[in-house]
């Protein structure tokens, strides 16, 4: 498998996470699936803003990984050589947090996503 495959996998996963975060920001009652389940139902206004910030950050990381793999955003490639490690680190931290959360649903849903994002970004970083 090529780094392009892993970059596309990472991008697909970031799209899913982005859409989930935007749904939380829009008021979907999925709070039990995020932030340790601390806000069941709809997120309060300050957490909705946080969901938008997280969504934008994850979309940016998707751009970094795609650029590093050479499949998109060619003007961003020099910066992506450094920022790829930020993507790996954030994915790894996300994985650990989703494994440690008390929320069963986050462990079931987001830990596998975090694992795939960590592995795919690491493969892209190392190739």
Can you walk through the features of this model?
This protein has one domain (3-126). 74% of the residues lie in helices and 0% in strands. It contains four helices and no strands. Helix 1 (3-25) runs antiparallel to helix 4 (104-126) and helix 3 runs antiparallel to helix 4.
Please report which band the strand proportion falls in: under 5%, 5-15%, 15-25%, 25-35%, 35-45% or over 45%. under 5%
Secondary-structure element order, as H and E? HHHH
Overall average pLDDT: 94
Shape: globular
Which spans of ≥5 residues are poorly predicted at pLDDT below 50?
Answer: none
Radius of gyration: 15 Å
- Number of H- or I-type helical stretches: 4
Indicate the multimeric state. Answer: single chain
CA-to-CA gap between the ends?
11 Å
Number of strands: 0
Share of helix, binned: over 70%
Largest sheet: none
Total count of domains = 1
Classification by helices and strands? mainly alpha
Topology, please?
Layout: H1 3-25, H2 45-68, H3 77-100, H4 104-126
Summarize the entry for a quick read.
This protein has helices at about 5-25, 45-70, 75-100, 105-125. It has about 130 residues and is mainly alpha-helical.
Tag the structure with descriptive keywords.
single chain, 127 residues, mainly alpha, 4 helices, globular
């Amino acid at each position: 498998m090529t780094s392009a495959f892993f970059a596309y996998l990472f991008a697909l996963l970031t799209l899913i996470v982005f859409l989930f975060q935007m749904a939380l920001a829009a008021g979907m009652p999925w709070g039990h699936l995020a932030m340790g389940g601390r806000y069941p139902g709809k997120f309060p206004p300050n957490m909705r803003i946080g969901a938008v910030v997280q969504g934008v950050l994850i979309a940016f990381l998707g751009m970094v990984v795609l650029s590093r793999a050479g499949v998109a955003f060619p003007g961003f490639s020099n910066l992506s050589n450094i920022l790829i490690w930020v993507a790996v680190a954030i994915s790894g931290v996300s994985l650990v947090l989703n494994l440690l959360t008390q929320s069963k649903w986050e462990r079931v849903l987001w830990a596998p996503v975090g694992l795939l994002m960590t592995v795919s970004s690491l493969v892209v970083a190392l190739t």
